[in-house]
Specification:
Blueprint: H1 2-21, H2 27-35, H3 44-61, H4 63-68, H5 80-88, H6 92-117, H7 121-128, H8 132-145, H9 150-171, H10 182-200, H11 218-237, H12 243-253, H13 259-278, H14 280-283, H15 290-298, H16 304-336, H17 341-381, H18 390-400, H19 404-411
Helix pairs in contact: 1-3, 1-16, 2-3, 2-15, 3-13, 3-15, 3-16, 5-6, 5-13, 6-11, 6-13, 6-16, 8-9, 8-12, 8-18, 9-17, 9-18, 10-17, 11-12, 11-13, 12-13
């Protein structure tokens, strides 16, 4: 059985790496295909191991297209902004190294937390849940008043409101498949709008510096890792709170305005969330990710030894995928500087539009166009594109405060 677990872990690393590098690809879209393998396997644990290793591999490698191509997975959408900033400074590889450091450190810490403090997660879940909407309201206020100028405060509020209304419409209607609802919205808000701006400004990828230098203090990186772990654990436990909301919260509450520290925290949130989500069935008897939902179908009863198996697979997978990610982070930018960036941007944008159309149809394409307009609005108004996170913040606030019936009536959905 150990040999089979080892082989399925390696297969998951290959699949997760490919999914991470492909713009628009995600584990949730391949899980139905993986579940078809269940009757063919001698043990359901082999498929569970495959899903766990695929999920972890994708978490690490998906930062590569986010930073180098501006094409994010929804959970890495905010990495486009600081990642592009470092890429334009010739520090794209440093950005990848920071995500690896943040992700691996948070992964190790979160595994320790799960092993020694997992029994307290139910209490944490019950204590924190009622206060989530008020914390999110504080985040929105921080987002607005951090602009300081009255005009920009108002403009920021408008962007948050527009993106929030779009989020309510998309996440609470049947116009596009709900399992893919976030793809066209995040692609438009962060990826396509960024690519259009790059094309119009005739941006070029500068020569990249491939060295081991990190232009961030050890204290700043340590603080970012800790914040990432805390936020990632909360995301892995609480319903309707995603990685992007947590990252936005930490960006303003934790003072993570600098690109490097923010990338560390965002990566930490992703990996800590993945560790907790994959073990949420045992911790709080509630699946909190597409991978954990699939595992619930495969293994209806999860015990402590299953948790140890999953944690071991996570640790093994990360030990292999980390050097793969660093290698790709060194080699890919050397290839990109030889390619016409305008052509590359057009190609990526065309691929995203094609994926949106295939996965969500014509209505998804309309949603993507609307989201792109809101993303471009930030550029023309001179406000931060991270304000587009209203697309998740407002719907989450309405959900937790029980305002959905009233909002649905007002919007006639």
């Amino acid at each position: 059985m150990l040999l089979e677990i080892f082989l399925f872990s390696l297969l998951g690393i290959v699949i997760g790496t490919i999914l991470g590098l492909l713009p628009g690809a995600h584990l949730n879209n391949t899980i139905p295909l993986m579940l078809l393998l269940l009757p063919l396997l001698n043990s359901p644990y082999y498929l569970a191991v495959l899903i766990v290793s695929t999920a972890i591999a994708q978490v690490f490698t998906s930062f590569i297209p986010s930073i180098f191509l501006g094409s994010p997975d929804p959970d890495q959408s905010l990495s486009v902004l600081p990642g592009h900033r470092l890429l334009s400074e010739g520090r794209g590889y440093e950005a990848i190294r920071l995500t690896v450091i943040g992700g691996l450190s948070a992964l190790i810490i979160s595994i320790i937390v799960v092993l020694f403090f997992g029994n307290y997660f139910t209490s944490l879940y019950n204590i924190t849940r009622p206060y989530i909407p008020y914390a999110l309201i504080v985040v929105i206020l921080f987002m607005m008043f951090s602009e300081r100028q009255f005009k920009k405060i108002i403009l920021t509020g408008i962007v948050i409101l527009f993106s929030g209304i779009l989020g309510v419409l998309v996440l609470n209607s049947s116009i596009i498949p709900q399992q893919n609802a976030l793809f066209p919205t995040f692609a438009g808000l962060f990826a396509i709008s960024t690519l259009i701006t790059s094309i119009t400004e005739k941006a070029k990828i500068p020569k990249q510096q491939i060295d081991a230098t990190l232009n961030a203090s050890k204290l700043g990186i340590s603080k970012s890792i800790v914040l990432g772990v805390i936020a990632g654990i909360l995301v892995g436990l609480l319903p309707a709170v995603g990685v992007s909301q947590a990252a936005t919260f930490m960006q303003y509450i934790g003072g993570l305005g600098e690109a490097r520290t923010f990338l560390v925290t965002l990566s930490g949130i992703n990996t800590a969330n993945e560790v907790v989500s994959l073990n949420s069935l045992y911790l709080i008897n509630n699946p909190r990710s597409g991978a954990s939902v699939a595992i619930e179908r495969i293994l209806p009863e999860i015990n402590f030894y299953d948790v140890l198996l999953f944690l071991g697979v996570i640790f093994f997978t990360s030990g292999i995928v980390v050097p793969i990610t660093l290698y790709l982070g060194r080699t890919i930018p050397q290839l990109l500087v030889k390619i016409n960036y305008t052509f590359l941007s057009l190609a990526v944008m065309g691929f995203l539009i094609l994926m949106i159309t295939i996965m969500t149809g014509v209505y998804g394409l309309l949603v993507g166009i609307t989201a792109t307009g809101i993303g471009l609005l930030c550029t023309y108004l001179g406000v931060r594109r991270s304000n587009c996170m209203g697309i998740l913040l407002l719907p989450s606030i309405f959900f937790f405060l029980g305002l959905n019936p009233l909002i649905f009536t007002l919007l006639n959905i």
